[in-house]
Sequence to fold (576 residues):
Amino acid sequence: MAGTILVLGETVDGQLTRLSMEVATLARQLGEAGGLTVAGGVVGPEPRAAAEELARHTGGEVTAVADDARSSAAWAAGQDVDYIVLGASPDGRDTAGTLSVLLDVGVLANATAVSWEDGGPIVEMSVFGGKLITRSGFTGGKGIITVRPNAVAAEPAAEPGSVSESKPGAGTDQAEVRVVDRIAEAGAAASIEEARVIVSGGRGVGGEEGFKLVQELADALGGAVGATRAAVDAGWINYSQQIGQTGKIVKPQLYLALGVSGAIQHKVGMQTADTIVAVNRDPDAPIVEFADLVVVGDLFEVGPALLAELKARQS
Amino acid sequence: MRIVVLAKPVPDPASSAERLGPDNRLDRSAAPAVINGNDEYALEAALKLTEAHGGEVIVLAMAPASAPEMLRKALAMGAASGVLVTDPALEGADTLTSARVLAAALRGMEYDLVMAGVDTSDGGAGVVPAGVATLLGLPYLSYAAKVEPDPSAGTVRVQRISPTGFDVLEASMPAFVSGTQALGAPRYPSLKGIMAARSKEIATRSLADLELGDKAPSGTWTTRVLASEPPAARAPTRVVRAPADEAAKEIVDLLASRGIV
Ligand SMILES: Cc1cc2nc3c(=O)[nH]c(=O)nc-3n(C[C@H](O)[C@H](O)[C@H](O)COP(=O)(O)OP(=O)(O)OC[C@H]3O[C@@H](n4cnc5c(N)ncnc54)[C@H](O)[C@@H]3O)c2cc1C
Ligand SMILES: Nc1ncnc2c1ncn2[C@@H]1O[C@H](COP(=O)(O)O)[C@@H](O)[C@H]1O
Fold:
């Protein structure tokens, strides 16, 4: 039975996000497994380049709609599709919530994997802070799926799809929100949710000064800097980098934790990382129970040694 | 200003005892219920706003009949009253139903702002607020780090966390704002607050009290959990106690063996 799956691409400064490439790759795989048509859409002020990038990953037709990205949901609601997939980012979640009530369909959120089985998508989610993996489906043959970063690796299609341009829709009932200003914050650019490597610092890092070491290690490993709430509360680093229950939930290939105790509220944000390495003075810290490798020692000694070792091997 | 805060009881994530029942639905008896973390931040921000501008905060929850315990804490923190929508027909409700029911309850209330957490720690879908705002036709300002209403102008400004910093958004009130921990740490209820909360009202509503029309829950949800299993167990931890340079070599060896460097 043929149907259509629609991928909504998201842009930052006109560029398609890596998460959107992953979602597009996933949609293409579902399309192949279920015999579905894969459609795409990018709504933004200058959507063309991002739409082409999306089409490279979906292999299907993508519509570029030159409009405020906030009207993404209004555009998508006008498309006749069975499933809509998008990233579980702030914008993606907002769009999913709006689309759900506009289309009267359900949402399966924060997918860590999606497969096509018995004529529908089956969505895997990690719940209760990673303690349980659930598999869920839609009951009505339609639905919206938001996908976590790193659920699949982005991979272009054998043949790129085509892009067509479309005028914005007739407008929506969505009440007006004006963007008064956009403020760039230093350091906020490296998104920890999309990073393949995260080096994170906790209270043990001791201050802003100590985070320089964390940053150097992140640079050496090509990763992003994360933090515990203790470090954020102390003002050493922005809240955007916080990992855990009230911060971000991440699933990188490598999580390197320096001076992080591994409290339950932090653990729920990072325990599904593929490899966890910790440096901690305290052999009884909770993180010792769920890391792959723990170095019992002072991060101000092990950190620089690790930097030196990484540089030595890379040269 | 009147602010309605949407507060959901969730199993305490710190209890580590959350689990699903045999029907693959949340087993609410397994872990003690607390107010969802992000909702407490929204509540705190709302209380600060009414302290600065006058007015009051009302908490609204759609939850099992046992929820007053949890709502009582919100009242002890300073909310003036509570509304609990509870109905056996809502057991296991999906996010679409939650959005419709909360929107219907809000239709019967007066407010300048509705505030919510961006997501919940139990389901964490993060889609209910946008759904409620859309159903009510309210401007929706999400991921707020700061909320600044201007009651005389009838507008509200929000700093919204963006991938590169933050955006300053503005809309007219009434408006819907969802927020996170960046709003600021919630207060502890004072002894006086706890005493005062005992005599505050928590109004209970059932589905029959709400106007849901043909969208009333019919016992089938849009999504269903089919199966669940614990994640694959992690390999045992390797603990290294060695001089820094040896330890560094061990780390890089592991990363190399896993193709990370
Ligand atoms: C409702 C709620 C929500 C929360 N949400 C979050 C959240 O989202 N994210 C989060 O992270 N936390 C959260 N927390 C806080 C959490 O409970 C912990 O307090 C926090 O994670 C601890 O941070 P930490 O590991 O940096 O600090 P600590 O627990 O103080 O640990 C510091 C560690 O550093 C080690 N250390 C110190 N010096 C050195 C050194 N020189 N070399 C090596 N090791 C050293 C110590 O042995 C210790 O293990 C939340 C708490 C609550 C109540
Ligand atoms: N049953 C509910 N009762 C009250 N508020 C809710 C309920 N469900 C969701 N919310 C609000 O919507 C936010 C996001 O919820 P969710 O989309 O389920 O992650 C929560 O932080 C609450 O503020």
